[in-house]
Design brief:
This protein is of the alpha/beta class. The protein has a single domain, classed as Alpha-Beta Barrel (TIM Barrel). Helix content is 39%, strand content 16%. Strands 3, 4, 5, 6, 7, 8, 9, 10 and 11 form a nine-stranded parallel β-sheet that branches. Helix 6 links the parallel strand 7 and strand 8. The termini are far apart.
């Protein structure tokens, strides 16, 4: 792959343009076990942050924001070892499976020991995540993160960020070592933490070294301060700068992309990239609202992620994606259209249409909704998606099958108790 250069935006392959128009159909069928639907891909996860869910909800500053939340995150990140990370991630992945997620994209930047020194082997923290996913039985797209600078001005990483940092060559060696582990349940892609954390020359070097089919994920335009700093440092808004300076195509997943102008909305849609939306985390952090109606109108591709894991529920992500738009626009059924009036089917169709390109997995896994549950009484193929997403907060996932193995039965993960026990012990250590 040649280094990216400024260029005009190409049209995505016809298959992807067609998917963008057709992301409104969700196959649901009824059998003796219940309502069978495709599993949901979780496109953005920081597993270690499951340990801090609910611990950043006390005011630390009258102007609390993402930037003050980050202080709590740094404090908990500094306490992890590979063993603790494996215990926390396994619990998280069990919760994902029981909720209906069957694949997770792990945006992994907690690489090193406290102080920034490498573990032996350097893959130790990544191996902890791989082991956790194998224990739970979830498909894992591992996305080691390149994190180099503390801001657009290139300042060095702070002491608390040193666990995250890499130079380019050690980072590429890490990717090579992890790609050797790929198999039926594991894909290894690449994440660039953000434009503020990866200088342009480093970004180009890494992109040029990746395999042509590598999945590439990137935080972008999450905060207005990030947009303003990018304009000041690079003379362009973050998404526009990226589109002008990288070969953004369907292999790319742009995480958040909350603050876009109209040209950026159209540019992402034309590129074929996917936007990973994380409504519960974006609401928790006060990020803002993604321009969903304009993006759908442009034919854009998107999926969901649970990010900081204040919620681990595809239903809640999808519900609040729609509800946020309703509150802002003061109207109902924003994601629906004349061609597809069902909001639930439109939302589920969207996440299913983008999953393979974001995760690298083409295989179809299955969730089974409990047809006997009162919330699904009288459900039909026409309304079961709407009923699941909007009818209440009682768990409706009965069974989950991943790679042909039933990992959840009757609403319970096969190893729930043992994994929860290890998680409780890990939390006692982390919060001591």
């Amino acid at each position: 792959m040649r280094p990216p250069a400024a260029r005009s935006l190409p049209q995505p392959p016809r298959r992807l343009r067609d998917n963008a128009r057709m992301q409104t159909s969700t196959p649901a069928r009824h059998d003796t076990r219940g309502w069978r639907l495709p599993g949901v891909a979780n496109l953005h996860s920081h597993a270690f942050q499951r340990a801090m869910a609910g611990l950043a909800e006390r005011q630390t500053d009258p102007a609390d924001s993402f930037w003050t939340w980050r202080e709590t995150m740094y404090a908990i990140a500094g306490r992890f070892t590979p063993e603790l990370l494996q215990a926390v991630a396994a619990q998280l992945y069990v919760e994902m499976l029981e909720a209906g997620y069957t694949t997770v994209c792990e945006f992994h930047y907690l690489h090193h020991a406290p102080g920034g020194g490498p573990y032996a082997p350097a893959t130790a923290m990544s191996e902890a995540l791989i082991a956790a996913a194998a224990t739970a039985g979830i498909r894992l797209t591992l996305l080691p993160v390149l994190y180099m600078a503390g801001g657009f001005d290139g300042r060095p990483l702070s002491e608390r960020q040193r666990r995250f940092g890499h130079a380019v060559e050690p980072f590429l060696r890490l990717l090579d070592a992890l790609r050797a582990r790929e198999g039926a349940m594991l894909r290894v892609g690449c994440a660039l933490h953000s434009l503020r954390a990866v200088p342009p020359d480093a970004m180009r070097t890494v992109l040029a070294a990746l395999p042509d089919d590598a999945r590439i994920h990137l935080h972008i335009a999450e905060q207005t301060a990030e947009v303003e700093d990018c304009i000041a440092a690079r003379g362009a808004r973050p998404v526009q700068w990226l589109l002008d300076n990288a070969d953004v195509d369907p292999r790319w997943t742009l995480v958040h992309a909350t603050h876009l102008d109209d040209a950026e909305v159209r540019g992402i849609a034309r590129s074929g990239a996917t936007v990973a939306l994380c409504p519960t985390t974006e609401a928790n952090l006060g990020d803002g609202l993604f321009p969903m109606d304009r993006y759908l109108a442009a034919g854009g591709r998107w999926g969901i992620g649970s990010d900081s894991h204040v919620s681990v529920s595809p239903v809640e992500e999808l519900r609040w994606l729609e509800y946020g738009q309703r509150l802002f626009q003061q109207r109902r059924n924003v994601a629906a259209s004349v061609a597809m009036p069902s909001v639930g089917a439109t939302l589920l169709g969207g996440v299913h249409a983008s999953a393979a390109d974001s995760t690298g997995f083409d295989e179809a896994d299955t969730i089974v909704l409990d047809a006997d549950h009162p919330l699904l009484a009288g459900a039909t193929t026409a309304d079961v998606a709407d009923r699941w997403v909007f009818a209440g907060n009682r768990p409706l996932v009965r069974d989950v099958e991943v790679a042909g193995m039933r990992v959840v039965e009757g609403g319970r993960h096969r190893d729930r108790d043992a994994i929860a026990s290890r998680y409780r012990e890990a939390m006692r250590v982390l919060l001591a």
